[in-house]
Specification:
Tetracycline Repressor, domain 2
Length: 194
């Protein structure tokens, strides 16, 4: 049901999607979605939760082969870019959730899921930065939370740019940005432990 809903919401948007069309795509009777979801907003919320879970799982899986903090941070960002590129048709769902988060009737629920998604990603990035500091790879004076917030914003903003400009090479942009950033926050030699 949720997979069918992803397709319908991505194709028609939240306002244009109907529970009847979602049921048809799922191959079930038109009343079946209401056995699992109270309304369209409830199903849309489930769609975004699934999408968010898949993005986070993809990021965590990418860390498995990374050998150091630099590779971990790059792998995490590139996995998000690769996921976005693979599921480009899902990106409008993010815009729909942003829109839902300012609609009075849906504000609390959808603003909450966006807050959790961003907080989770920032927390993961900050943990990687702190690990890099304790392992002597990154400067001790860094504020992991501040850097994590700005890196999250950079990757999120890149998604938006890629949606509006498909010719933008997101992988190249991430690699260039992270290369410069990581050189700037890394300890350049063993004599500099600031």
């Amino acid at each position: 049901m949720v997979d069918a809903a992803i397709d319908v919401f991505a194709q028609h948007g939240y306002q244009g999607a109907t529970m009847e069309e979602i049921a048809r795509r799922a191959g079930v009777a038109k009343g079946t979605p209401y056995l699992h979801f109270t309304d369209k907003a409830d199903l849309f919320y489930a769609v975004f939760e699934k999408w968010m879970g898949e993005v986070m799982a993809s990021s965590h899986q990418a860390l498995a082969n990374a050998r150091n903090t630099r590779e971990r941070l790059m792998a995490m960002a590139l996995s998000a870019v690769d996921f976005m590129d693979t599921h480009r048709e899902w990106f409008p769902l993010t815009l729909e959730v942003w829109s839902a988060s300012v609609t009075p009737a849906l504000r609390d629920r959808f603003a909450n899921i966006m807050q959790r998604m961003y907080a989770g990603y920032r927390s993961d990035v900050a943990a990687l930065i702190r690990a890099g500091q304790s392992e002597g790879e990154l400067r001790k004076a860094l504020n992991p939370e501040a850097i994590a917030a700005l890196l999250t914003g950079a990757v999120d903003g890149l998604f938006l740019q890629c949606w509006f400009d498909p010719s933008l090479d997101a992988r190249k942009a991430v690699k260039g940005f992270f290369d410069a950033l990581l050189k700037g926050i890394a300890i350049p030699n063993q004599g500099d432990r600031k």
